[in-house]
Amino acid sequence: MEKRDTNVYATLQAAVSQQVAAPNKKQALELADFRMNRNNVQLQQVLLQNEIGGKKVFTIEGVEEIRWFDVQLGDYSGRYEVYGHVRVSIRLPVGPEHLIREIQQTCFYLPRSLVTDKTVWVVPTFSKPVFVRVVHQAMEWKKTPALDPASLFRVG
Q: Which domain of life is it from (predicted)?
């Protein structure tokens, strides 16, 4: 018996910022990169929700990019806001094949904080978690390899 891949795949992109304490902008940028980069993040799953509040746990397939590119002086002396971009590949098992189209017509995003009106993403790393504020986010569904013979596998 042959069975099709019943996972849906997507790319989650987020413009993020983190606050760092540093003596100057250059060191703030370096510290942000040291705290959170492709080599030290430990993302395995991410909880996303849809427009009506339904939540789904997506599996992280891989971290495609983490890039820090801008630094602004923060509200307090010696604190900087460092801005960057995170892109991860994600996967969601959907069960029956007929649900794939239905899921792919839904928009999922990182949920807002219960305390503030902002979205805060806690990203686990080898040392300690990094709290980043999500400035903007977008999710793009990848084409489902349903018609690709390579997506078939034998059961039994």
A: Bacteria
Classify residue 156: in a domain, yes or no. no
Kindly state whether residue 152 falls inside one of the protein's structural domains. no
Task: Provide the domain limits for residue 12.
Answer: 2-144
In a domain, 103, yes or no: yes
Other Cβ atoms within 10 Å of 150 Cβ, number: 7
Model-wide pTM > 0.85: no
Which is nearest to 110 in space by CA: 68, 60, 65, 56? 56
Q: Give Cβ neighbours of residue 2 (< 8 Å, ≥ 6 apart).
A: 152, 153, 154, 155
Q: Which residues of 105-130 are buried (b: 16+ CB within 10 A; e: fewer)?
A: eeebbbeeeeeeeebbbebebeeeeb
Rounded CA gap, 104 and 50, in Å? 11
pLDDT tens, residue by residue, 39-82: 999 999 999 998 888 899 999 999 999 999 999 998 777 799 99
Total number of domains constituting the chain = 1
